């Protein structure tokens, strides 16, 4: 079977053209802006159920790949800012003449940073530009176009599946747009990709044998020895969810559900999580085990200010990954370490909520958090929310991408969320304890505080822009 690999033109971008930047008609907040039969009932009316409807066996998130123009320095910033260890590389030193890729790890969290080499390097040695690539789907022109269009961003959300070929074939049969067909990596692993949204692909990874335990990633990558002399660990342990922003929620959710079989785990409308100035609609999709969580957001229109989601879509030039939620085993330790480095090569955080927020926190979470922990939440700017199952501690960085042009400090696209979930401990069939996915929710009670913070950030950018016409 032959598969076409669509160009870099973002999937669903055509739908964006049907909604001008500032449309006059207000979209109802209880439904998607798609204009079809897709309806949202909102948080209060949503009834959670798990039909166990996956079309293929999904194990867990495997890695996140960022495409950039300088993998060395971007990966070093993330390593320093998040406390993630360099563990593996694929570059000129390993015989890869196609791209430089560096893998960071903390617990089960894997970030891969990839940048292109000149295709002339391989050609000069009578090799095809792709022949030495460790990621078989890598393409020079696409990577450069991606970076020029989106800046720093997520190219691939990779999930480990039981069989990548089966996952790919099943996905395409059920409507997925193919990007890269199943490709064996030696006799160790298989990798395949389908389009997810925008220029983001969903990457399937499966193993046919036990991989080299030195770094436990993919063939073609070698262990980084020098990095072991300077270990970093701020307590991050895994990827909780990867959030995408799309122009229209209905088509995007239907598309992903149709080829994965994932079910709706949660939903929010602007009435649930918006402010008086702006808002969004959101749906969270989950696999059978509810540990691979893929929320998607769309903008709502007709509000006082432009939705933050619309702002993202304009600056990102289409759909893409808005943020990555990283689970910490001790959010207080993680935040103390990250804040030390905020202005020396790390990541800055969105402004903290006002003191009144923390005065009410004892009522909301005093049975879970001690007075000392509540005080530390205030000092570190940590938000706290809970649902009927557990408690969520969370905080958001400012956008982590490049400076784009002088009035804007950070391009308002991708950012990082640090979370810790408390409660929801259950036992598996073997008696081993684990935490249920989504324990404590997604910070519904904190959305208004986050939105206000983002609105204030955007206003500061607008003020700077007005000073520099």
From TrEMBL:
<dbReference type="InterPro" id="IPR037523">
    <property type="entry name" value="VOC_core"/>
</dbReference>
<feature type="domain" description="VOC">
    <location>
        <begin position="60"/>
        <end position="207"/>
    </location>
</feature>
<comment type="similarity">
    <text>Belongs to the 4HPPD family.</text>
</comment>
<keyword id="KW-0585">Phenylalanine catabolism</keyword>
<dbReference type="GO" id="GO:0005737">
    <property type="term" value="C:cytoplasm"/>
</dbReference>
<keyword id="KW-0408">Iron</keyword>
<keyword id="KW-0560">Oxidoreductase</keyword>
<feature type="compositionally biased region" description="Polar residues">
    <location>
        <begin position="1"/>
        <end position="18"/>
    </location>
</feature>
<comment type="pathway">
    <text>Amino-acid degradation; L-phenylalanine degradation; acetoacetate and fumarate from L-phenylalanine: step 3/6.</text>
</comment>
<protein>
    <recommendedName>
        <fullName>4-hydroxyphenylpyruvate dioxygenase</fullName>
        <ecNumber>1.13.11.27</ecNumber>
    </recommendedName>
</protein>
<dbReference type="GO" id="GO:0006572">
    <property type="term" value="P:L-tyrosine catabolic process"/>
</dbReference>
<dbReference type="Pfam" id="PF00903">
    <property type="entry name" value="Glyoxalase"/>
</dbReference>
<keyword id="KW-0677">Repeat</keyword>
<keyword id="KW-0223">Dioxygenase</keyword>
<feature type="domain" description="VOC">
    <location>
        <begin position="238"/>
        <end position="398"/>
    </location>
</feature>
<dbReference type="GO" id="GO:0006559">
    <property type="term" value="P:L-phenylalanine catabolic process"/>
</dbReference>
<keyword id="KW-0828">Tyrosine catabolism</keyword>
<dbReference type="InterPro" id="IPR041735">
    <property type="entry name" value="4OHPhenylPyrv_dOase_C"/>
</dbReference>
<dbReference type="InterPro" id="IPR029068">
    <property type="entry name" value="Glyas_Bleomycin-R_OHBP_Dase"/>
</dbReference>
<comment type="pathway">
    <text>Cofactor biosynthesis; prenylquinone biosynthesis.</text>
</comment>
<feature type="region of interest" description="Disordered">
    <location>
        <begin position="1"/>
        <end position="33"/>
    </location>
</feature>
<keyword id="KW-0479">Metal-binding</keyword>
<keyword id="KW-0963">Cytoplasm</keyword>
<dbReference type="InterPro" id="IPR004360">
    <property type="entry name" value="Glyas_Fos-R_dOase_dom"/>
</dbReference>
<dbReference type="GO" id="GO:0046872">
    <property type="term" value="F:metal ion binding"/>
</dbReference>
<dbReference type="InterPro" id="IPR005956">
    <property type="entry name" value="4OHPhenylPyrv_dOase"/>
</dbReference>
<dbReference type="InterPro" id="IPR041736">
    <property type="entry name" value="4OHPhenylPyrv_dOase_N"/>
</dbReference>
<dbReference type="GO" id="GO:0003868">
    <property type="term" value="F:4-hydroxyphenylpyruvate dioxygenase activity"/>
</dbReference>
